[in-house]
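Quick one: structure tokens for this chain, please?
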Amino acid sequence: MTSPINGGSCTPSTASPEEQQKFFDDVRQTFESLPCFIAKKFNDRVSSAYRLKGFAGAQTKFSDIIRHDLRLVE
């Protein structure tokens, strides 16, 4: 069995492009009420996770931001 790189999932993401677009729209909508520089930082973190770990990584990063960081800035 191969081990995932950087803690990523062993199974590839099966989300359709429409599901991915809806996810990123929801991410933007969640952060739009925050000051611009904070919203940009959070969006960049989710986008970076997507580039490095794929869709599942972006979902995990978004969940982490909601649980840990968002409540600190609201």
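The two ends are 43 Å apart (CA to CA).
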